[in-house]
Amino acid sequence: MNRLFDYLYILATIGFTVYGQLILKWRIAQFGQLPADFSEKIRFLFGLLLDPAIFSGFVAAFLASLAWMAAMTKFELSHAYPFMSLNFVVVLMLSGWLLSEPITAQKAIGVGLIVLGTIVAARG
């Protein structure tokens, strides 16, 4: 049971990372394209930092880092790191569902290969 609890650190890392990626994409898409002018780019990017949802994405990245540090106290890096590839799987599925991004056959096959590779690496 205790070892299963240790995997929650990896799961938290994945969860916070995925949340951060999705929230950033969702909110940034609402702000529009990056301006061409350099000074406008800087103003645009700093304006994004003031958005509470975008800021929450940065907080999620920080929390993911803390969870990952905790995971590193429980697992060898070579065992834990392959699980990070599951970020690709979850982001692909949720970006299709929540952001209406296309999920092509190539993306699905690629993610399937990632899952297969994760299983092989985690058992090794």
Account of the 3D structure:
This protein is mainly α. The chain contains six helices and no strands. It has helices at 2-31, 38-49, 52-72, 77-80, 86-98, 105-123. Helix 1 (2-31) runs antiparallel to helix 3 (52-72). It starts with a helix and ends with a helix. 11% of the residues are buried. The model has no long low-confidence stretch (mean pLDDT 93).
Short key terms for the protein model shown above:
mainly alpha; 124 residues; single chain; globular
**Number of separate strands:** 0
Shape: globular
Roughly what fraction of the amino acids lie in strands? under 5%
* Major sheet attributes: none
Alpha plus pi helix count: 6
Class computed from helices, strands and strand pairing = mainly alpha
Average residue-wise pLDDT: 93
Per-chain topology:
Blueprint: H1 2-31, H2 38-49, H3 52-72, H4 77-80, H5 86-98, H6 105-123
Helix pairs in contact: 1-3, 1-5, 5-6
Summary, kept brief:
With 124 residues, the chain is mainly alpha-helical. The protein contains six helices and no strands.
